[in-house]
Structures are given as C-alpha cells and as structure tokens.
Specification:
With about 575 residues, the chain is α+β, with helices and mostly antiparallel strands. Among the domains are: about 340-405, Glutamyl-tRNA Synthetase, domain 2, CATH 1.10.1160; about 480-585, Arc Repressor Mutant, subunit A (Orthogonal Bundle). The chain contains 27 helices and 14 strands. A four-stranded antiparallel sheet has the order 5-6-9-10. A two-stranded parallel ribbon has the order 1-2. It has a two-stranded antiparallel sheet with strand order 3-4. A hairpin with a 5-residue loop joins strand 3 (about 130) and strand 4 (about 135-140). Helix 23 (about 510-525) packs across helix 25 (about 545-560). The longest helix is centred in the first third of the chain and has 16 residues, at about 75-90. It binds glutamic acid.
Length: about 575
C-alpha cells in the first residue's frame, strides 16, 4: 500500500470523503461572489502546473528544503535540520533548496533573511535553489520567498473556494478569541469547528452584506474531518502513528494582506517546488492531519514527512537526582544562536561534524576510521536519527571535535583562518599577528609536550588570544604586572637568585635537555629538589622542587602558569625579548 493510500485506509474516512464531496457541492458560492473575493487576475492550478513542471530526477532522489522564518537569529536547530535535509538530498543526487517563510509580516525582518543565507554559507551547507549570498535567487521553481508568491497562494485558495472547499469568514480576532475562551470554560477543544464555525454555512446574502461593508475577512478551509476518526501516518522518524482527523476549519489566507498561513503555503510550495521529503521540527507533527487534507483538497500528492526532535540540553537535576533535559531555547540559551559559533571562531567544519554526530552517532566511528575523508561522504540514515528524544547538545564534546580538527591544521592554515577571524572579532590580536607574521606562525607551530600531533589547546579562534596573545609585547604589557602576585609561591630572594642564575647561564643554542639540566642546578643551589619524586620522598628537606623554579621562568616570560613547552616558547621568543621580560619584573 502506498504511503498516500495508507493515510486514508480507514473505511470510515473514505465514506466521509465521499459524502462530504456531495456536501461541498452545496457550498459552492456563485462565481460572481467568488470574483468579488478575488478581484485580481490570478494564476490557475493548470497554469501553475505548466509553469512548475515535475522535476526530472532519478527515482530515489530526494528533494528537500529548509524553510526558516526570518523572525530572529538563526537557531542551531534550524542549522541542524538544514544540514540533515541537505545531506539526504545530496547523498541521493537530489535537490536541496532554501525557502524564506516570511508570511508572518509583522515578525519578519529582511535583515534576518540575510543572516540565514550567510549562516548556511558560513557553515558550507550548499543550497541548489533559493536566495543566494549576493541577494539574488537561483532555481526554476521560485520565487523562493513566500511574500513574493501571493498570487500563487491566492490562485489556489480561489480554486478551493470554487470547489466549495474554502469560504470567507468575517469573525474579528476578538470574536475568535472569546469563542476559544468560552470553549475552554466549557471544557471543550478550542477551535473553529462544528457549531463554532460561524461562517461555514453562511448564506450568499450574509457574505454579500459584509463585503459591501468592507468588513475584513479571512478564508478558511472547510474541513471534512471527524475528530473521532483516526488516520494512519507513517513518519520517517516517528514511525507509524495514528492521529485524529482534523475537523477545524483553519484559516488559510488573510484577505487584507493577501498572505496565506503556514499550512496553506506549505502544501502549495512543497507541491509546486517538488519537495519529496519534508524534514521539519516535530512541533508540526500535530498539523499533519490538516496538511494531508490540504494536499488532498488541492489535488496534490503529499510528500513524505520526517519530524525531527529538537536539540536538547541538560538543565540541572530534579529532587530524585535525575538530570533534567530541555529543548535549547532562543530566549534562554546563547548556544541556540548558530552565529555564536562564528563569533567564537569555531571552524565551520567542526560545527557541521558535531551536528552530524548529533544526527547519527555512528558519525564518530566513521570519522575515526576515515580521518581524512570529506564529511560529505558520510551517509546519513533515517534509522539512526533520534526519534522521540532530541539529541543532547554538549559544548565539551563540540570543543573536542573542534580541537581534533584544528590539531590537524598546519600553523600556516591556522594563521590564515585565525587571522581572518581576528580581523573581525579581535582587532588587536589581528594587528599583532599581521605585524610579524613569521613570529606568529612560529608561535602556532609550538606543540604541546608529549602530544603526537598538532596543538590540542585551541578549540576556537577566540582561544588564540589566551593561547598566543602573551607572545606579543603590547598584549603582554597589559598582563605583566600580575606576575608578582602569581609568583608569591616563592620568596623574593629565591626568585631574584633564580633570575640571576638564569640570565648568567642561558644560552639560546641549548637543547631542551641542556637547558633543563641548568634549571636543575639552579633549583639545587637554592635548596629545591631536582625532581618531583625526590621531593615527595623527603618533603621537609627541600623548599620545593625543580618544577617551582621552572614555573618562575614560565610566569616571568608568559604571565601564565600553564603554557605549551617552555623551552620551545623561549626559542620562539628569542633572547632579546626573553631578557627584557625577565628584567621587567617590578
Ligand atoms: N517556517 C517554518 C518554521 O520556521 C518551517 C517549517 C517547515 O520546515 O515546514 O518553523
């Protein structure tokens, strides 16, 4: 049984549909009245079929889309569903497009469209059709911005009215609001249905009268559903479900603005744009019965649906000690803003790979087995996507993924990308990095001791300042006065003597071992153990151990107690800078 026929497999529904069609006949308004409702010349469904022919694609190719509403920041969840949709389309040689869903004109902002396009571009999520970074649209199924498709929606809504499947409603918003309140008071389901559907059976005269008075109106879909009936829906992610039929006459178009509601726009656009798979947030799951009715009423075949569970985060514990999880929210969580990752300087690939991890946990093993393969080679599957519970967002894990990616970059690459980021978000660092690029690159070449490859201390470019800023004198000058306090773990006398001996014995050509032997001597002469073990065995015999002496030099040179290998740092800094820093202790 095909997906579509399984939806209407229920006999009862079938019978209802037949009798309802009969009923629709009785509700067809006179054409003269319909022309008054839609006075402009509008495209007919036949014209639209011609304009937007079926796509010619291989049989298994998926056509997917992302349909963000440009009402605020780009949500991480939006990026996640865009990425998943894009991957399914491209791994099946299909098409992925961007549609701007700006039918809520009050809340839509043009600059947000820009943010959306830039985000997809920044995170390398390639779109085949829709708005591009240059502000133009590409693709033959446009316009891809809903506010530019008014005629199309109106043409189809008109066709529904002509078939008796939609009608005008002149209720004010106050009226529908108080109706809802009354329903709640009476313990009823709220909505425009049954006896509450005031304009459903209005006479031609009543409608004419309101039109003459210029009363604002909306067009409602005439639902033929019965809430008591169940329909079977096979969701790609949620599995086989039984949902109640929709019996609410939902608003589909506002006459004053000419704009449709999401429901109508979804059915119209996904049909004419040839979407085969709608992957969207699971807040839309309960609207599926309405959407299927709309597809049927319009004479369209519905797409397959996959409703994605939202990304969650941990939010404390309950009294039983269980971890509380909740959906990440735009309002409460800065990490919900996709652009935060650009501002902090996560390589886009790190964010994408982390999201792929969230989508299919097998990505991690795949990445280990294929360290150098482009992540577009990874095959996402619906089976492995989270179903009822959304994946858990974890910043620590993101940092690990990112560190791994950065550790595989050369100093040259880190310099180029890091500088690009710094020019935008840390100008002072950018200035220093550019002033002496070979110095900056040698800093980035320093490896942490004991690490087999690359630096694992950088997870994002915002870490560059703390990890390399102190190498540059103007930045160091700002922190150097803190050194005295940090050095309070040794006496002033020991510190001075250590400095003196250091300056007398330092030779920039020393190997690491030669240099460290000298530090040991300094330690021993000052009454410190030459090794940590020795100190542990006889702690009372020594003032401390060689590590403390090395720490003095580390703090003097870098202002920090934790840095990559000190000998490498000294080599990169060069003798002159080193002496100057050591002597600059107040
Ligand atoms: N504009 C809808 C939203 O932002 C998109 C839902 C869909 O993908 O169909 O939630």
């Amino acid at each position: 049984m095909s997906y579509f026929s399984s939806i209407f497999a229920n006999n009862k529904t079938q019978t209802n549909n037949e009798s309802m069609s009969q009923e629709n006949q009785n509700h067809i308004l006179p054409q003269t009245l319909i022309e008054k409702l839609f006075p402009n010349k509008l495209p007919t469904p036949e014209e639209l079929n011609e304009k937007y022919p079926k796509r010619e694609l291989p049989p298994d190719a998926m056509v997917t889309r992302v349909g963000p509403s440009p009402t605020g920041l780009m949500h991480l969840g939006g990026l996640y569903s865009a990425l998943i949709s894009e991957r399914f389309a491209h791994q099946t040689n299909g098409v992925f497009f961007l549609r701007i869903e700006d039918t809520d004109i009050e809340r839509s902002r043009a600059e947000t469209t820009d943010v959306i396009v830039k985000s997809l571009n920044h995170f390398h999520i390639p779109t085949d059709e829709g708005m591009t970074i240059s502000g133009d649209e590409k693709g033959k199924y446009g316009p891809y911005t809903q506010s530019a498709r008014k005629d199309i929606y109106q043409g189809l809504v008109k066709s529904l009215v002509e078939k008796g499947k939609a009608y005008p409603c002149f209720c004010t918003s106050e009226e529908t609001k108080s109706m809802g309140e009354e329903q709640v008071k009476e313990g009823l389901r709220p909505g425009y249905y049954g006896k509450w559907a005031k304009w459903r059976d209005a006479s031609v005269e009543e409608i004419e009268k309101e039109l003459e008075k210029n009363t604002p109106y909306v067009i409602r879909f005439r639902s033929e559903g019965n809430f008591e009936n169940k329909i079977k829906v096979s969701d790609l992610l949620k599995g086989d479900l039984e949902l109640s039929e929709n019996d609410i006459d939902r608003k589909i178009l506002t006459a004053a603005t000419g704009l449709p509601t999401y429901h109508l726009a979804h059915a119209v656009d996904d049909h004419y744009m040839g979407t085969t798979h709608v992957l969207r947030g699971d807040e839309w799951l309960s609207s599926v019965p309405l959407h299927l009715q709309l597809f049927e009423a319009l004479g369209f075949t519905p797409p397959r649906y996959g409703h994605l569970a939202p990304i969650q985060k941990e939010d404390g514990m309950n009294e039983k000690g269980d971890i509380i999880k909740r959906k990440i929210s735009k309002r409460k969580d800065p990490e919900a803003n996709a652009m935060l990752y650009e501002e902090l300087g996560y390589p886009p690939r790190a964010v994408v790979e982390y999201l792929l991890n969230l989508a299919n946990s097998s990505f991690e093993d795949w990445r280990k087995a294929n360290p150098d393969t482009d992540n577009s080679e990874f095959q996402l599957t619906f089976e492995k996507l989270s179903r009822s519970n959304g994946p858990l967002f974890d910043m620590v894990k993101l940092n690990d993924v990112s560190k791994e990616i950065i550790s595989r970059m050369t100093a040259e690459e880190i310099y180029a990308v890091g500088l690009e980021w710094a020019k935008k978000y840390d100008e002072r660092l950018a200035l220093e990095m550019e002033k002496d690029s070979s110095y900056a690159k040698s800093i980035l070449n320093i490896e942490r001791e004991g690490e087999s490859r690359g630096r694992k201390d950088i997870s994002k470019w915002a870490d560059l300042n703390s990890e390399m800023g102190y190498f540059f004198d103007p930045i160091f000058d700002e922190i150097k006065d803190n050194r005295e306090e940090t050095l309070s773990f040794v006496t002033k006398e020991d510190c001075d003597s250590a400095i003196k001996s250091f300056l007398e014995t330092y030779n920039e050509n020393d190997t690491k071992d030669e240099w460290f032997a000298k530090v040991k001597t300094i330690a021993r002469d000052l009454g410190y153990a030459e090794g940590a073990k020795q100190f542990k065995l006889e702690p009372t015999k020594y003032k401390g151990q060689v590590g403390d002496i090395a720490k003095i030099f580390r703090v003097l040179l870098t202002g920090k107690t934790n840095t990559p290998d000190l000998h490498s740092i000294m080599k990169v800094m060069g003798r002159e800078r080193l002496v100057q820093r050591i002597n600059s202790l107040a």
